[in-house]
Amino acid sequence: MDSLDMTRLDFYSNSQQVTNCSLTCPRNTTIENEMWWESVTTAVVTKESVVMTVACVVGLVANTLVVCVLAASKNELSLAARYIVNRAAADILFLVTVPYDSRAHLHNSWVFGSLLCKLRSALVLIGPVMSSVFLVALSGSWYVDTCMAGVSAKLRSTLVNVVSTVSWFTILLFSIPTFLQSEVFKEVLQERFHCVSLPLSEDALLSQLLRFLIIILVFVAPLVMCWVLMSLVIPAHTSRPCTPPEHSTSHMTTDESVRHYRLLLSLLVTFTACQLPYWLVYLVNEFIRGVKLGEAVMLAFSATLCLPSVNAALNPLLCIYYLQDLRRCETKAKTTQEQPQLIALVAL
Fold first, then answer.
1. DSSP state of 275
2. 77, β-bridge pairs
3. Distance CA 181, CA 176 (A)
4. Which DSSP state fits 292?
5. Strand residue runs (E) in 216-337
6. Which of 43, 112, 309, 341 has the highest count of CB atoms within 10 angstroms of its CB?
7. Distance CA 269, CA 262 (A)
C-alpha cells in the first residue's frame, strides 16, 4: 500500500475535493520509514477487513433473524421489541455497506461506481444514526416502564409509533444531500478511485461543522442520554420489586423485567466499548491535522474501523441471549404455553 499525502492540492484533478479516505492515509511520511509504514498498514488493514467481513455476515444473519421472528409473531409486540426491530433494521442497512468498505480499504480504491458510492454514503449515515436513536428510545421506554408505570399502554404505543415514524422520515430527508453530493474521484498520479461523501474542502468551516454534527448525532448525544436514563432507572429498579403493582399498565413479569434490564445494560456497554475508541481516534485526528503524530493516529484509526460493524453484529446476539421470547402474549397462561422461543429457534 503506497504512502500518500492526500492533503496536497494536486491530489485530485479538482483541487477542492478532498476524500474521506484522507482519514486513514498517512501524512508527513518520510522516505526512511515508508517501507515500515507500508508493511504495518497492510497488516492492520488486512486484519481489519477480515474482522469486518465476519462481523458483516454474523450481523446480517442475526439481525435478519430478529426482524423476521418478531415480524412473524401473531401476538402484539412489546414496546421494547418494536424498538429492537427498528434498531435491527438500521443495523442491517449499515452492514450492507461493510463489504464495499472492506474491499475499498483492503485495495485502497473504490471500484463499484458512482451509484453504489451514493447509496453507500447515504446508508452509512442512515444506519448508525438510526441505531443510536433507537438505543435512546429503548432506554427511554425502559425508563417509562420502570419509573412511570402509570402511563397508559395506549399512550406508550402511540409514542413508539410517533418516534419511529418521525425518526425514519427525518433521517431520510437528512440523507438526501449526502446521496446527491457523494461522488467518486480519481487520484491525479495513480489509477485509484475514492468514494467521497459530501465532497467539501477539509479546511472549510461547513465541512468541519458537518463532521462534528455527525459525531454528536451518532455517538455523543446518544451516549450521554442513554447513560443518564440508565442512572435514573437503576435506583428505581433495585429499590422495589420488578413485578408491577395491580394498577400498573405494565405487562412485564419479574423475569421479563430482569431480562430487559440486563439487555439494556449490555447494549449500552457494547455501544460504549465499540463506538468510544472509534470516535475518539476520529476526534484526535481532527485536532492534530498537520502534526507529525498524525501517522500513529492514522494507524489507530485503521485499527478501529471495524468496531462499528462489530457493534452492529453484537446487538442482535445480545437480544437473542437475554430475551428468550421478545413477543408479548395477551395472558400469562398463554405466555407459558408458547413454545417456539427465539433461542429455541436459533438452536434449531
1. H
2. 327
3. 9
4. T
5. none
6. 309
7. 11
- What cell numbers appear for 68 in the block? 423476521
Q: Give the residue from 285, 124, 275, 125 showing the smallest Cα distance to 202.
A: 285
**For the chain, how far is it from start to end, CA to CA, in angstroms?**
44
Instruction: Return the number of other C-beta atoms located less than 10 Å from residue 42's C-beta.
Output: 13
Give me the long-range contacts of 303-306 (CB less than 8 A, separation at least 24). 303/44, 303/48, 304/277, 304/278, 305/24, 305/48, 305/52, 305/101, 305/105, 305/278, 306/48, 306/51, 306/52, 306/55
What are the distances in angstroms from CA 99 to CA 57, 60, 95, 142, 150? 9, 11, 8, 34, 46
Amino acid at 195: C
CA distances to 64, 197, 245 from 127, rounded to whole Å, are 14, 15, 38
